[in-house]
Amino acid sequence: xxxxxxxxxxxxxxxxxxxxxxxxxxxxxxxxxxxxxxxxxxxxxxxxxxxxxxxxxxxxxxxxxxxxxxxxxxxxxxxxxxxxxxxxxxxxxxxxxxxxxxxxxxxxxxxxxxxxxxxxxxxxxxxxxxxxxxxxxxxxxxxxxxxxxxxxxxxxxxxxxxxxxxxxxxxxxxxxxxxxxxxxxxxxxxxxxxxxxxxxxxxxxxxxxxxxxxxxxxxxxxxxxxxxxxxxxxxxxxxxxxxxxxxxxxxxxxxxxxxxxxxxxxxxxxxxxxxxxxxxxxxxxxxxxxxxxxxxxxxxxxxxxxxxxxxxxxxxxxxxxxxxxxxxxxxxxxxxxxxxxxxxxxxxxxxxxxxx
Length: 356
What we know:
Protein name: Cell shape-determining protein MreB
Binding site for ATP: 11-13, 155-157, 203-206, 285-288
Subunit structure: Forms polymers.
Subcellular location: Cytoplasm
Helix content: 40-55%
Strand order of the largest sheet: 3-2-1-9-10
CATH superfamily of the largest domain: ATPase, nucleotide binding domain
Keywords: ATP-binding, Cell shape, Cytoplasm, Nucleotide-binding
């Protein structure tokens, strides 16, 4: 008996949803590789713990960067290893699989992921756009003719989409998201405190202190940040608060808000009326930024609401979307590969490996 599996192939994390079981895997989209043998020595959380702590012989790699697949050979490996980790072969036979991918994925990358999923499970494969899946996971009725709008603040990109009657009417994507906020925080500490902090430290301080608005003293959260003093080269720690992180990321948040405003300006008036009535939904890890909903509401003059489970919206949405497809309520084509396309893909990948 076949079962259904949904995969959120995110820049920061990969989540796997199994029908009847919920989200069964949620791990960072990271591998650790031995530089000499090219052997994968760790994936997910184990590899994440190695960031900034490995010898020269080990490389920690993110196959997905900036919302796109930077190295889809490694993305394949990561996908296969995660599916093997949850022992898919024993859980179900030839499942129906829906993969939610980054926005700007190419046809070659699609085929590559299909091949990886087929190799791991032998199932039927479907691929869908991330903002649409996020909306479904947040509770939007995709089949309704009424317009809805979702802002998915992910790790590599922020995707903004207006949907109606089962499809996207208008969408925009910007490469400003969680990874960029981390990089900006690192630069902020260099410039303001002459302190060099690592990628993991920046992400952890973002999670703990980030705010989309300047806070009063009563609301401030504080934390100790540790790093290397750029003047002396010695370890140093400093006390920071939420307003420091707000100063670091404010310009990125304004960029996202401006793009959302552009989307609202380009939609039909009836759809705009629906959105004003229902509000805009925020999903993704960025939805956890303190006061992000208030900031966007003030900027757009439209009510902005956080999804109930912003981090797992896309994973949950893959399962719900797959139900719509398999029930015939939403028409989608299964992604298959003919013999010719397999041969063509092989030579394209061979060329890329030889020529770079």
